[in-house]
Structures are given as C-alpha cells and as structure tokens.
Design goal:
Distance between the termini of chain A: 6 Å
CATH topology of the largest domain in chain A: D-amino Acid Aminotransferase, Chain A, domain 2
Order of helices and strands of chain A: EEEEEHEEEHHEEEHEEEEHEHEEEHE
Radius of gyration of chain A: 21 Å
Number of strands of chain A: 20
Function (chains A, B): Acts on leucine, isoleucine and valine.
Largest interface: A-B, 69 and 69 residues
Oligomer: homodimer
EC number (chains A, B): 2.6.1.42
Cofactor (chains A, B): pyridoxal 5'-phosphate
Protein name (chains A, B): Branched-chain-amino-acid aminotransferase
Keywords (chains A, B): Amino-acid biosynthesis, Aminotransferase, Branched-chain amino acid biosynthesis, Pyridoxal phosphate, Transferase
Chain lengths: 357, 357
C-alpha cells in the first residue's frame, strides 16, 4: 500500500456535535487504478479532487457503481464495520453486470480498514452517529467510444453521518414510472439507477410524498423497492418483503432485518408483495406497518401510502408494538457493540493497521 | 463568452490521413457551469482535464447525458453542422428525465459554433471523414447524498472521426437482457443506458455477434434498438422501423432516413416491428435488409441475425439494390454539401464567429 498522509488535516475544524451528512469528508481516501488488464497498488492519500477530462467515459457512458456502508464507534472508542464482506461481494456483482473489472478482496477490505483506522478520529460517537463509507468503481478512460472502458478507478471516500431522517414519511406507489427493466441492472448499485429515479421522485414530491414505492415495470402490481431502500410490509403479525431478483437490490440491511425478525420468532414471507394485497389489508385494517430499510437511514417508517388518487393513512404504533422500530433497535445495538453479535456481523477495525503495511 | 485560447495547440501533430476515432481531441473545449439555480458564462478553453473528486455526484448517481453530432467539411473548406437543433432539443429532453437543468439554446448553439469554428483546422476532409462532437451535461456536486445534484457542468468536446465500421455485422436478438424499462429512461441519451448495455453486448460478442438487437423487456417480441442505433427492417420493398417511445431514442439519423426514404417514394411503416414477422419474412424469403442507423457510423448493415440458436443469413445486395446504402449515400451527400438540401438540414458554420463575441 502506498501511504501519503495529509499534511493539512481538517479534523481539527470538524465539530462532531454539529455537522450535516454527506458534506464533510474525512482527511483521506483510498484510490486504486486499473489499466492494462490489472489493478495497481492501493494508495491511501489526502481526500481531494483528481484530474478527469469531460471526455472521461464514466461521464459519458455511466460505467460506475458503488457501495454504501458504515463504521461505528462504541463507548470505548473501538471501531466496527458491519458485514463488509457483503458489500465486497455486491460491488463485484454490480461491476460484473456493468462489464467492469472486479475488485480483489484485499484491495477492498484492506483499503477499507486502513482508511477507517487512519481517520478513526472522524467517526462520531453517539446515538445514530457513524461514519458513512462510499466505495465506488468508475471508468476513467478518455475516449468517445460507446464501449467498455479500459481504465477504471476504485476509490473509497467517507463522511461522518447521522440518521438523517427519522420522522415518518409518505410514499407514492408508482403506477407509471419504474426503476428497473426485466433483464436490466436493477439489482446492481449502478450509478445510472439513481439518476433514473430522481425525476419520478420529484413528481412524487410535488404531490406531497417523500419517496416512490417502485413497482414492476410491466404491470405495476408488485412492490419492488421504496426510494433507494428495500421495502417491508407487515400484515397482521407477518412481515412480507419482495424476493431479491435481477430487478431488486440484495440489501445488507434487508438481509439483517430478515434474520433479526426470525430470531424474534416473527414470521417472514419472502416473495411477491402485491399492491392489491397491501391495499386489501389496508381496507380490512390488517395492514399494520410498511417501512423501508437501507444502510444510510437504517429504517424509514411510512405514515401514509399514496395509491392512485387515494392516500392510505397507516396506523401510528407505539415503539414496542412496531416491528420496524424494534428490529431497527436490535440491528443498531449489534452494529454499535451494545449487544451480543450471535451472527458474527461485526468486524473490529484494529488500531495501527498501517504499521508495517 | 470567456475565451481562453490554447497556448500549446496540438493541431500541428495531427495527421488527418492517419488517426483513430475518439482518441484524439481537438485543441479546445466548451465548458459552462451551473450553480445557484442558473447557468454561468460559456467558456471556450484548451481541451484537458479538470478537477473532480471521487465523491462527485456524476460518478456516484449517474446524472449525466450527452449528444452525438458531427461537423463536415466540404471541398471548399466550408464547415457544416447537421440539424443541430435536434440535438439541442434532445439533450434537454434527456436532462429533464434525469432531473437535470435544461441548457439554454444560446449556450448550446453558440458554444458549438464557436468551438467548431476555432478548431476548424481539425476537421478532416474526405469520404466518411468528419468531426465527431460530444456535448454533455453531468452532475458536479461533491456530496454523498442520493438526490439531484445542485451543480452541473455542460461541456462540448470533439474528436476527428471516420466511419469507423462499415463492414456488415452480425447481430443477436435479445431474448433475455434488455436496455429499457417501461416508465424508464430508454428514450434519453442517459449515460447509464450505455453502461447497462455493455455486458449483454459482451455475451453476444462471445457468441460471434457484434451487437445486440434490443427487444422489449416484457415479452422480447418487439424490436426496439440495435446496439446504440435505431433499427430498420426491409421486407419486400417496404421499410419498417419501431415507433419512438419512452423506451426508444428519437434518433436524428433515424428521422433523416425516414424523410429520405419517403422522398424516394419508398413506403415506410412506423410501428411495432415484431421479431416473429421478421423471422417469418426470413423464412419466406421476403426479408431483404436489416440495418442500424446512428450519427457515429451512419449505417451499419447486418449480414446475419441471431435468433435463439439459429443464425439467419441475410441476402447480400448490390449497392444499387440496397435501401440502406442508397439512403446512406443520400444522407451523406446532404451532410457534406455534395447535394441540394431541400430539407434545410445543413447549418453552415461561419468563420471568425468569436470576433466581437
């Protein structure tokens, strides 16, 4: 690993009591470049801009994918990653679908640990606080040819985070727009999937909804995702969530929620979640909760669902009656080392990992 | 317009008799930045890299779209653009679908003319030669938030071009992968659409096909596009091409071919092009030609079509019997000022447009 420490660290001016998510970047970043058919040496360097031409293929043809993950600090100042191998595996699935080279495990995991260790002072401690980590791969060849790039960059950047939205939100069931084609790239964390979702989200915002519940593009009869999250529906005391597919992201938080629900003896049904069944459950008052899950906000509880011209108002549950909030608490307790970790999900970041690197 | 001419022009080292498409860039580029809700002043500056962080939103969320267009030099050294208003209109349709700000007409058109005029020495003259021009818009805000960017860059870069592939190609009808969802972004020249197409194309390449004929993602029974081109099918003496839609790009070359065919009295049917009808026509020997059209290569003639495990071998037509080649010749003659332009498609680029700018 090439190590180039910042000579002008900004950590001194960072106020862990007052910051906004995603705007502040830690002092360093990881960069690794791919050319001539292979990945070069991993480099830890000061966070900052690099040189790219507007003819860069990522800007033109969108070969870019990313991961979202977090590091958590416990009361003793120890730092933990959460299931980083899942993110490693998934970024390579995304890369493969976009015809990009896969990242070697040591580049991803060693780079991640080195970065988090070097900038551990940037990780805020406290409820809902964490370091949001963004590994990404993008094309870097400078050529106007609509074909795969021959050069790529893998980078890891990170930003202190807090649960930036915890108030309940209203979501609109899409009956026209969609985020994924059959035989498309919906399962991948492909950059283009996000850009494609912004305009329909803007339209939903104009109708008073924070997010869109994405449905299948052919019939709009089945739930797929919600905003940039996986979605869960509770009818009676059973939880339903769509089966992952080529169109649905295999979310780490989703998988963790399923495991945590099962541990509590809650029945989880993984399969089609039909709009009709959700609406019918609302009509007969068995629809108790609908929520989204994802790394950034963990859980987004829905207070209302827009369905055609109607707004279905969901019950307001007390904390102890809510599966969404109970499972969120279970998850966060494991992530932040406040509870046992029977699943082996936490990965401690050792100190001084770069010594001897 | 801010004008910053190159002090180290590379034109002296450019050999117009020997170059490869898309690798050489002309001496200048156009850049215009958007922030605080408005576009700034257009800048003509030396082509080259600019500073972007790996946390740049275009790399992460894929808000990026582009246009492809050409400038042509005639025997007298005069330079022409081809239907630039169509590209202007389309980039704004793409931008709107990706929730990006639209470009003002003067930024697009004036920037284009200034760039082409300043670097007119870079435009090669001769059969199939032209200057390929790439206007693009991409997000430039530096933030890890999955929402629309608040900053963007509009840029125009350009590269001397030749018809880089004119030999007939084999194409595979997709029966699994697809490029566009209903309610998605298929009609837009969104960067992510290209990245999504590369892996299926790679699989087609491994089967011995150069490109994929994209079909609808629900049934795979209807032609949509071919590779990055619109597609035409000739059965008997009638030409068929899919109707443009939210899933199909409204190609300038496509529209020009339709007009040129009609001028020749050729019947053109715009509507569903069913895989079954094409295969049936092949069986009963009325399938005469299938080809793709686009700005970069103008026409790509297909010699074979892969359909499931079968390879349908298309007839080899003489030039004068081929609608594809005849219409291509008609189009190129107009583009390069070798024929009358009854449609008013050519736009001459005046000399010294920057004087007094």
């Amino acid at each position: 690993m090439i190590i180039q420490k910042s000579t002008q660290p900004r950590i001194g001016s960072f106020d862990p009591e007052s910051y906004s998510f995603g705007d502040h970047f830690i002092d360093h970043m990881i960069v690794c470049e791919y050319q001539d058919g292979k990945w070069g040496e991993v480099k830890l360097m000061p966070y900052g801009p690099l040189s790219f031409s507007p003819a860069n293929m990522a800007f033109n043809y969108g070969q870019a994918c990313f991961e979202g993950m977090k590091a958590y600090k416990d009361k003793d100042g120890e730092v933990y990653l959460f299931r980083p191998e899942k993110n490693f595996e998934r970024i390579n699935k995304s890369a493969a679908r976009l015809a990009m080279p896969e990242i070697p495990k040591e580049v991803f995991i060693d780079g991640l640990k080195a970065l988090v260790d070097v900038d551990r002072a940037w990780i805020p401690y406290g409820e809902g606080k964490s370091l949001y980590i963004r590994p990404l791969i993008f094309a870097t060849e400078e050529a106007l040819k609509a074909r795969v790039s021959h050069k790529y960059m893998f980078a890891i950047v990170a930003s202190p985070a807090k649960s930036y939205y915890t108030a309940p939100v209203s979501v609109k069931i899409s009956d026209y727009y969609s985020r994924a084609a059959s035989g498309g790239v919906g399962f991948a964390k492909a950059a283009g999937n996000y850009a494609a979702s912004f305009y329909p989200t803007k339209l939903a915002n104009q109708e008073g909804y924070e997010q869109v519940i994405w449905t299948d593009d052919t019939t709009h009869e089945n739930f797929e995702e919600s905003g940039t999250m996986n979605v869960f529906v509770r009818i009676g005391d059973t939880i339903y969530t769509p089966k992952t597919s080529e169109k649905i992201l295999d979310g780490v938080t989703r998988d963790s929620f399923i495991n945590l629900a099962k541990r509590r003896g809650i029945e989880v049904v993984i399969g089609d979640v039909k709009v009709k069944d959700v609406v019918d459950a609302y009509r007969n008052e068995t629809l108790k909760e609908v929520w989204g899950v994802g790394t950034a906000v963990v859980t987004s509880v829905f207070e209302a669902i827009g369905y055609k011209d109607e707004k279905l108002i969901l019950p307001k549950l007390e904390f102890e009656d809510s599966y969404a909030l109970t499972l969120q608490r279970d998850l966060v307790a494991i992530q932040t080392n406040q509870a046992e970790d029977p699943f082996g999900w936490r990965v401690k970041v050792e100190r001084h990992v770069l010594e001897g690197a």
